Amino acid sequence: MKYKLTAVSYLNTKPLLNGILNHPIEQDLDIELDIPSVCADKLLAGEVDFALVPVATIPLLKNPQIISDFCIGAEGAVRTVCIFSDVPIENIEKIYLDFHSRTSVQLCQILSREYWKIEPEFLPAQEGFINEIGGTTAALVIGDRTIDLESKHRFIYDLGEAWTSHTGLPFVFAAWVSNKKIDQDFIHRFNEAMQKGIETIPKLVYLLPKPHPNFDLQEYFEKYIHYNLDTSKRNALDLFLEKMKANKMLQV
Known about the structure:
Elements: E1 3-8, H1 14-21, E2 29-34, H2 36-44, E3 50-54, E4 65-74, E5 81-85, E6 94-97, H3 102-114, E7 121-124, E8 137-142, E9 155-158, H4 159-167, E10 171-178, H5 184-199, H6 201-204, H7 217-224, E11 226-228, H8 231-246
Parallel strand pairs: 1-2, 1-3, 6-7, 6-8
Antiparallel strand pairs: 3-10, 4-10, 4-11, 5-8, 5-9
Helix pairs in contact: 1-5, 3-4
């Protein structure tokens, strides 16, 4: 029997995928790659056995189980989940919310209310929304699309950095989640594959194309993305899910 999984297709997932593809467990998997929101939709619909999903998906599942000791996390700045603006945060009137991830949308709304103490109008984003940034209109942009925006806008607010400043904790953006029981021996081998992928980052950076000439892949993987789902990240995840529940008026 093969397990069917879907994983986020972003750059930050490449070390984990490399671990899977270079481990015997790859023979036991049917792998798909999608943007975060589609990963979540497939898990919710029962189309896959487990997935690397935005953690805001967890409360929507009937029997959610985090099945791996690895995740997509940050301990401070994450670099690829940011609000881009041409005015300071206190002058922002509207924020487009990237449609790729439920978690980042929730995090942006929570931080706006609790940390920055602003009340902008949140706008649903569609393709091309990045071009709408200007004046007092900002945008939450996530993933690889953020990389070429760093030099185009005067103000950049990193959500990972803001969360840590607000709570003193790291953050978990995505985790490996199932909606049913997964064999423990498989989980053990899956964690082995994850660890192998992280250990091969120094070699992997030579195989991946740079998304931008000035983008340091190894620095991104080793400084900005933290893959181990340790105790502090689990505590941070619990706190984030509590805040989601408390802020029922926020979008999922």
